[in-house]
């Protein structure tokens, strides 16, 4: 790896323990490089598309790389991120935990960044590197040979698109995230992967682009809008998460108006404007597709 960690002093939230119950520690193929995928984001709420990203990356890794996936983590962002629609970390972490425990065997939720002050993504990746390689001692082959686990960011192309926007990411952090760790970028409707990574060409060797072969445009923003409108979100999210939202009456706060709801995300690009027509403008109760 080309550089050191940015920090060696990590502040943990109270009663914090790094989850590793689903982390493989032994490589099946000794020729491969062990890798752990980390997805950072709001997850407000977590959707099937967040989980799908990991499955797409798994297929990509098996078909195109010399990596072997040892585990995957969702790392919900701190409440201090203050993004519109961000529910409390407690609820977001609980929903992510329900989603991962219900639906697969290799994903975990790390609440380290969620339950403390905002941490930059570069520091979050350092935290994973510290926990997995320093505290847990990395991985080993069946013959007992030690291998360092490569930590890599997993993100949608909208997130990588923000890396070219001035003032969002420090150059030193990009160098750290893309130079030291590397990332898998999943194509997201409305944000071209090539276009999103144009200005990141110097780290091309560490950026893996994953095409979405089945286009699916689910976003947390749309799910929140549906919930406010009293529309069903079942089969967009794991059942346990839908039930949790229902039981706690989440995302009901902003009363719907008679005009179309338009949410403009802070991140650039056309796709960041998502609109759902109000109930009155639908025909026979069927939503018209938004442009
Ligand atoms: N439909 C999708 N396709 C590809 N990547 C996605 C998709 N939904 C979310 N992601 C990625 O998952 C990560 C975490 O996403 P985040 O929690 O911000 O979800 P979101 O749906 O974009 O949320 P919001 O709508 O609140 O902005 C980001 O890297 C994002 O790009
Ligand atoms: N400078 C940085 O480290 C930086 C900048 C922008 C977003 N991020 C991260 O990207 C994720 C963005 O999530 P959203 O797509 O929900 O906004 C969050 O985890 C956030 O911490 C990090």
TrEMBL record:
<keyword id="KW-0662">Pyridine nucleotide biosynthesis</keyword>
<dbReference type="InterPro" id="IPR005248">
    <property type="entry name" value="NadD/NMNAT"/>
</dbReference>
<feature type="compositionally biased region" description="Polar residues">
    <location>
        <begin position="281"/>
        <end position="291"/>
    </location>
</feature>
<keyword id="KW-0547">Nucleotide-binding</keyword>
<dbReference type="GO" id="GO:0004515">
    <property type="term" value="F:nicotinate-nucleotide adenylyltransferase activity"/>
</dbReference>
<feature type="region of interest" description="Disordered">
    <location>
        <begin position="261"/>
        <end position="291"/>
    </location>
</feature>
<dbReference type="GO" id="GO:0005524">
    <property type="term" value="F:ATP binding"/>
</dbReference>
<feature type="compositionally biased region" description="Basic and acidic residues">
    <location>
        <begin position="264"/>
        <end position="275"/>
    </location>
</feature>
<protein>
    <recommendedName>
        <fullName>Nicotinamide-nucleotide adenylyltransferase</fullName>
        <ecNumber>2.7.7.1</ecNumber>
        <ecNumber>2.7.7.18</ecNumber>
    </recommendedName>
</protein>
<comment type="pathway">
    <text>Cofactor biosynthesis; NAD(+) biosynthesis; deamido-NAD(+) from nicotinate D-ribonucleotide: step 1/1.</text>
</comment>
<keyword id="KW-0548">Nucleotidyltransferase</keyword>
<feature type="domain" description="Cytidyltransferase-like">
    <location>
        <begin position="38"/>
        <end position="224"/>
    </location>
</feature>
<keyword id="KW-0808">Transferase</keyword>
<dbReference type="InterPro" id="IPR004821">
    <property type="entry name" value="Cyt_trans-like"/>
</dbReference>
<keyword id="KW-0520">NAD</keyword>
<dbReference type="InterPro" id="IPR051182">
    <property type="entry name" value="Euk_NMN_adenylyltrnsfrase"/>
</dbReference>
<dbReference type="GO" id="GO:0009435">
    <property type="term" value="P:NAD+ biosynthetic process"/>
</dbReference>
<comment type="similarity">
    <text>Belongs to the eukaryotic NMN adenylyltransferase family.</text>
</comment>
<dbReference type="InterPro" id="IPR014729">
    <property type="entry name" value="Rossmann-like_a/b/a_fold"/>
</dbReference>
<dbReference type="InterPro" id="IPR045094">
    <property type="entry name" value="NMNAT_euk"/>
</dbReference>
<keyword id="KW-0597">Phosphoprotein</keyword>
<keyword id="KW-0539">Nucleus</keyword>
<keyword id="KW-0067">ATP-binding</keyword>
<comment type="pathway">
    <text>Cofactor biosynthesis; NAD(+) biosynthesis; NAD(+) from nicotinamide D-ribonucleotide: step 1/1.</text>
</comment>
<dbReference type="GO" id="GO:0000309">
    <property type="term" value="F:nicotinamide-nucleotide adenylyltransferase activity"/>
</dbReference>
<dbReference type="Pfam" id="PF01467">
    <property type="entry name" value="CTP_transf_like"/>
</dbReference>
<dbReference type="GO" id="GO:0005634">
    <property type="term" value="C:nucleus"/>
</dbReference>
């Amino acid at each position: 790896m080309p550089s050191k960690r940015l920090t060696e002093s990590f502040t943990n939230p109270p009663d914090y323990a790094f989850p590793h119950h689903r982390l493989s520690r032994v490589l099946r193929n000794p020729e491969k490089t062990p890798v752990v995928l980390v997805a950072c984001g709001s997850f407000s709420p977590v959707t099937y598309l967040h989980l799908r990203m990991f499955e797409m990356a798994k297929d990509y890794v098996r078909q195109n790389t010399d990596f072997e996936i040892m585990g995957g983590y969702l790392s919900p962002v701190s409440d201090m991120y203050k993004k519109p629609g961000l529910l409390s970390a407690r609820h977001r972490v609980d929903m992510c935990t329900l989603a991962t425990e219900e639906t697969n065997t290799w994903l975990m939720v790390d609440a380290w960044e969620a339950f403390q002050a905002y941490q930059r993504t570069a520091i979050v990746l350092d935290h994973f590197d510290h926990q997995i390689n320093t505290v847990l001692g990395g991985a080993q082959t069946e013959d007992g040979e030690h291998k360092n686990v490569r930590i890599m960011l997993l993100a949608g192309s909208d997130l990588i698109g923000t890396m070219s926007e001035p003032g969002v990411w420090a150059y030193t952090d990009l160098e750290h995230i893309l130079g030291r760790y590397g990332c898998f970028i999943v194509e997201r409707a409305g944000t071209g992967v090539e276009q999103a990574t144009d200005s990141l060409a110097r780290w091309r060797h560490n950026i893996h682009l994953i095409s979405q072969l089945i286009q699916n445009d689910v976003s947390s923003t749309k799910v929140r809008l549906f919930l406010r409108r009293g529309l069903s979100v079942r089969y967009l999210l794991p059942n346990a998460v839908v039930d949790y939202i229902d039981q706690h009456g989440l995302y009901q706060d902003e009363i719907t108006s008679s005009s179309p709801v338009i949410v403009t995300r802070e991140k650039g690009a056309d796709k960041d404007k998502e609109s759902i027509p109000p109930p009155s403008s639908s025909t026979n109760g069927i939503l018209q597709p938004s442009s």
